[in-house]
Amino acid sequence: MKRLTLYLREVERRLSQGESRVSSRQLGQGLGVTDTQIRKDLSWFGQFGQAGVGYAIEDLATRLRQILGKDRTWKTALVGAGRLGQAIMSYGPFAREGFEIAAVFDADPSLIGTEVGGRRIRRLDELDQIVREREIMLGIISVPKEAAQSTAERLIEAGVLGILNFAPVRLEVADRASVVSVDFSARLEQLAFQVSLGLKGSIDGDD
Amino acid sequence: MKRLTLYLREVERRLSQGESRVSSRQLGQGLGVTDTQIRKDLSWFGQFGQAGVGYAIEDLATRLRQILGKDRTWKTALVGAGRLGQAIMSYGPFAREGFEIAAVFDADPSLIGTEVGGRRIRRLDELDQIVREREIMLGIISVPKEAAQSTAERLIEAGVLGILNFAPVRLEVADRASVVSVDFSARLEQLAFQVSLGLKGSIDGDD
Q: According to the model, what pLDDT value does residue A144 have?
């Protein structure tokens, strides 16, 4: 996925310069990737590009955006409007990257109906209806760990296809949805490991 | 690192059952790892274990805990006591995993001197002294992205060896410290990618 993101960035740069075709060799130059690797990566997603002619840049950009899910705005439901949920709501880059927090839910009666960051907190029992009506595809779980699994079930029942899970617990979803977890402890353990080994430098833990 | 964590868990299980020696073959059984892989992984960290005799379990456990940084409590300074910082402070698993938030700092005068989760919020200009006095080794950055780089500089100057960075910006630390970033956007992009491809199941984005 990291390489595909790199390819898209390079393809968009070339597109903005008015180029119309690019070979895998040209694409690889400057990215530090061999043309063989590029052809292999792209062939995973079907046939595009022709030997000797290269890729039509505009088609390639469109296809890469589709593959990476960057061809749309992803409507997202946030469940759990406590401190972490509020921090997530105010996280700037989401909107820029094509994500919209379309609804926010919480179980705490004292929060329901209040506005946080311009968003009204809704009752959990409205979740199903709102997720369906607004065609929300993704869920973000920032509830206490005891409530995480039942929240996941609820989101999946309502039609959500993917869950970003901040609760420190492994969600069991079988093949009903896709889950990515953000585990603060695991990151801190990774850091302690690196410091123990004397490793230096900026390592993107999330790559 | 993931495999080393698995090895440690298995070694500790055997230790608790009173076992004193284990071969790489025995260790690999049930973990789904070949004995060759285990010997290779462990050889990275120097010579331990003898061909035909296996590993002394207690030594192996001690060594794995050292390598993984699990042989001590890591004192940590948290900088940025806003919503995200408060969520991090109240994140349960840190203490269990050997991390102690030993001091909390913020630049906001209205927060300084107040207590959040039983911890007093301190002025940024106390950071240097407190990090040195308490021998704090790690920093957690949960400040706005504009302040992240200067916060990192300050922590490193004070003697911190590793930084867990929650700000959506890449820190430039060269070889002065180890940095692990928690990038919420990158996780959400990963999720969108998986959903676009129709991938299902729980994938630990952080592994």
A: 93
Same domain, B123 and B29: no
The verdict on a CB contact (< 8 Å) between A202 and B172 is yes
Interval A35-45: pLDDT, tens: 888 888 888 77
Pair B39, B79 in one domain: no
What's the pTM value of the predicted model, to 2 decimals?
Answer: 0.82
Is there a contact between A140 and A76 (Cβ–Cβ < 8 Å)?
Answer: yes
Compute chain A's Rg from CA coordinates. 21
Residue A22's domain spans which residues? Answer: 2-67
CATH number at residue A17: 1.10.10.10
Task: For residues A181 and A81, state if they share a domain.
Answer: yes
Beta-carbon contacts of B152 under 8 Å, excluding residues fewer than 6 positions away, are: B139, B141, B163, B165, B171, B173, B177, B179
**What is the pLDDT confidence band of residue A195, given thresholds at 50, 70 and 90?**
very high
Q: Does B202 have pLDDT greater than 80?
A: no
Mention every residue, 6+ apart, whose C-beta is less than 8 A from residue A121. A81, A104, A105, A106, A111, A112, A113, A114, A115
| A 92-131: CB under 8 A from B | 92-94, 97-99
Tell me: do A34 and A121 sit in the same domain.
no
Q: Are residues B101 and B174 in the same domain?
A: yes
Instruction: Please report, as a single letter, which amino acid is at residue B143.
Output: V
Measured between CB atoms, does A178 come within 8 Å of chain B?
A: yes
Q: What is the pLDDT of residues A54-67, one digit of tens each?
A: 888 998 999 888 88
Burial A99-111 (b: 16+ CB within 10 A, else e): bebbbbbbbeeeb
Boundary-marking domain end, from A67, A85, A103: A67
Same-domain check for residues A177 and A90:
yes
